[in-house]
């Protein structure tokens, strides 16, 4: 029996138990999945939501539900604190609603110290699992409900990829698609390789069939997901490159836009740049984390590229794809960072003029190599952070208005929550635009003339 069949069996068992309880209570059983962190976690939560819906539960946004599942993040220290805060609140509710079942999964539960903390101190938490076995949710919940026992099932690592999991997408017209899991890079500040395991790529035929099914289901835009998509395919029996996979996806009817994240500069190939330049569907946006502009700090971060190599790579990308929108991640205050190092970072930002940059203050993560290094004083970090932020914002407000007056294609995503009659959509380069229109346009790619830039977004007029 495949793991997928096994979980289908437990989903059926759980559905029977749920309907029994609903008959006894005379109402539907509800669930709430709370997601912390990145797009990988958001995609995992769509699968967790799919499994619970398949098992007969009814979804709710309220944490006052019969089953509450927290899908956690641990990339930064404060992510852990946020979870404990929410659990504290829910414990109060559970005191007056003892039937409530509470579960915690995701990256934070891959840290043994956090699991022991939940096991010994937070005894009101019923189920704990990690990142490697989210597909087992039905089995773990069924086991808890049928035995009344607490269930702990955290795997250290895995080479298993379970296909055909049910999933419930947040958007009908766009979807994330995992192409690989885990990371082998061990950047010295990053906890991800310890909580997401070693790199393993899905088979191209499984990815293609999932995307074909999504296209048949009305999806026009996909986001290919991986910690480092540029090293896709290395562990496959018949290795193919990320660029070769993209060429296959380009052929799928119905898919109009292809996005991907996250890229690693050391693995971004000329083959991929060429494939992007020739493509009609790959979006004109590339998120390329720099992290630091100092080659000395990049070495200490174990990033495997220098300032010059990053600048040269960006040069090649911009030459081949002149209308590309580049965004990045930058860490300020990495242990040992000097003023000279920081000046190097500012220099790269001045030279490249990113459309946007996500700037982070270094967060010490126990278990990572960098956690053992002498830390930069907080006031120094704060000062550097503010200087970087103002440079980034200055660049963004200058470069993002470059398309004013043009008529561009926009994927209409939702009604503008602030202004009646306004819609919000995204250009191929991922910049948002607000324009007047009827909500029947949501999920459609429309032509919009860009009239005004507000730095991070535009105002426009429909040109249908
Ligand atoms: S590439 Fe580096 S920063 Fe990104 S997930 Fe892997 S170890 Fe972390």
Give a short account of the largest sheet. Answer: 6 strands, parallel
Radius of gyration: 23 Å
End-to-end span in angstroms? 53 Å
Q: What percent of residues are in strands?
A: 15-25%
**Count of beta strands:** 19
Strand order of the largest sheet: 2-1-3-4-5-6
Extract low-pLDDT stretches: none
Mean pLDDT across the residues is 95
Q: What percent of the residues sit in helical stretches (DSSP H or I)?
A: 25-40%
Global structural class: alpha/beta
Shape descriptor: globular
Chemical compounds bound to the protein: iron/sulfur cluster
Number of helices: 13
Write the layout of secondary structure elements.
Elements: H1 3-25, E1 30-35, H2 39-54, E2 58-59, E3 67-72, H3 77-96, E4 101-106, H4 112-120, E5 127-129, H5 137-147, E6 151-153, E7 174-178, E8 180-181, H6 192-196, E9 200-201, H7 204-216, E10 221-225, H8 242-250, E11 257-261, H9 270-278, E12 285-287, H10 295-300, H11 307-320, E13 325-332, H12 339-352, E14 356-361, H13 378-399, E15 407-415, E16 422-427, E17 432-436, E18 445-453, E19 457-462
Parallel strand pairs: 1-2, 1-3, 3-4, 4-5, 5-6, 7-10, 10-11, 12-13, 13-14, 17-19
Antiparallel strand pairs: 8-9, 15-16, 15-18, 16-17, 18-19
Helix pairs in contact: 1-5, 8-9, 12-13
The protein binds iron/sulfur cluster.
Residues 183, 185-187, 190, 192-193, 227-228, 264 line the site of iron/sulfur cluster.
């Amino acid at each position: 029996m495949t793991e997928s069949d096994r979980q289908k069996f437990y989903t059926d068992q759980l559905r029977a138990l749920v309907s029994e309880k609903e008959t006894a209570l005379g109402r539907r059983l509800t669930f709430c999945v709370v997601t912390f962190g990145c797009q990988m976690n958001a995609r995992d939560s769509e699968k967790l939501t799919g499994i619970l819906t398949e098992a007969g539960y009814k979804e709710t946004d309220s944490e006052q539900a019969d089953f509450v599942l927290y899908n956690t993040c641990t990339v930064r220290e404060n992510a852990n604190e946020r979870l404990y805060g929410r659990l504290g609140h829910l414990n109060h509710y559970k005191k007056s609603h003892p039937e409530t079942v509470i579960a915690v999964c995701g990256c934070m539960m891959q840290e043994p110290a956090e699991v022991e903390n939940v096991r010994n101190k937070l005894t009101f938490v019923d189920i704990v699992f990690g990142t490697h076995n989210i597909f087992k949710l039905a089995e773990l919940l069924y086991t808890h409900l049928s035995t009344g026992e607490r269930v702990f099932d955290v795997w250290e690592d895995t080479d298993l990829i379970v296909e055909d999991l049910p999933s419930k997408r947040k958007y009908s017209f766009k979807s994330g698609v995992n192409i690989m899991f885990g990371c082998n890079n061990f950047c010295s500040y990053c906890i991800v390789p310890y909580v997401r395991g070693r790199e393993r790529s899905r088979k191209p035929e499984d990815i293609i069939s999932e995307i074909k099914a999504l296209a048949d289901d009305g999806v026009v835009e996909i986001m290919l997901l991986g910690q480092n998509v540029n090293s896709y395919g290395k562990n496959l029996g018949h290795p193919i490159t990320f660029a070769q996979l993209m060429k296959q996806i380009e052929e799928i009817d119905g898919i109009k836009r292809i996005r991907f994240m996250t890229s690693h500069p050391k693995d971004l190939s000329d083959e991929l740049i060429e494939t992007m330049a020739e493509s009609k569907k790959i979006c004109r946006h590339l998120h390329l984390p720099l992290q630091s502009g100092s080659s000395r700090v990049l070495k200490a971060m174990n990033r495997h590229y220098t300032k010059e190599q990053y600048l040269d790579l960006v040069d090649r990308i911009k030459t081949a794809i002149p209308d590309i929108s580049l965004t990045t991640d930058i860490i300020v205050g990495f242990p040992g960072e000097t003023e000279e190092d920081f000046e190097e970072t500012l220099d790269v930002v001045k030279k490249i003029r990113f459309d946007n940059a996500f700037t982070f203050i270094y967060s010490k993560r126990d278990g990572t190599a960098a956690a053992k290094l002498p830390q930069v004083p907080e006031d120094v970090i704060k000062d550097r952070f503010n200087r970087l932020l103002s440079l980034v914002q200055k660049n963004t407000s200058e470069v993002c208005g470059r398309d004013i007056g043009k008529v561009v294609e926009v994927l209409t995503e939702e009604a503008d929550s602030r202004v009646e009659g306004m819609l919000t959509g995204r250009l191929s380069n991922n910049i948002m635009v607000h324009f007047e229109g009827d909500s029947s346009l949501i999920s459609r790619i429309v032509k919009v003339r860009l009239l005004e830039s507000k730095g991070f977004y535009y105002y426009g007029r429909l040109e249908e």
